[in-house]
Each structure stands twice: as C-alpha cells, then as structure tokens.
Please model this.
Amino acid sequence: MLPDTVEYNEWRFGRRDEAKVFGIASLTHKLGMGISAVVAGLLLDACGFAANQVQGAGAIEAIRATMGLIPAGGMVLSMLLMRGYPIDDAEHRRILGALDARRAAPR
Model:
C-alpha cells in the first residue's frame, strides 16, 4: 500500500515523495511497537505479573490476552479499515496508465 500512496500522490499532485512516505511509515511503525510494549507492560503489571516467579491466574490470563486476544482484535480492526481502501486493481491500473501517459508526453 505504501507504493500505491507514492503513485497516488504523483498522479494527484505531480510529486513523487517516496522518502517522505516510507520515512513516515517507518516512524509510525516504530512508535506503534514502542507504545504497544509500554501498554503490554502496564497491563501485565496491573494484573500482578512478577518476573521469575510462579504466576497467578490473573497474570496468566493477562499474558494470554496480551499475546493472543488483543493482537487478534487489532487484526480484525485493521481488516475492517482496509475494506474501505479505495485503490483496487482497476484503479491502480488507471493511475499507472495516467502516470505513463504523463511521463511520455513532451514537455
């Protein structure tokens, strides 16, 4: 989807900002990983997780939720959001065709 963003931007605004798009995507990915680590730690702490000890039932359930249910919920939410993604195969071909025609036109 990132290359689609670059091509869409070039088609719509006449600029190819690959470095910006991929840089921002990398930054948001790293921020998301950091935030999710903090949230997981806070959740485990709130449920009584103690390192290097036998875990209680609450901590075990928190571990299961943190490693299974919460990511699964995030994946379902992502799938629902991606259903609204407007660039399908036909639209992508149309954008690429318009870009090819623009590049082939004399300047």
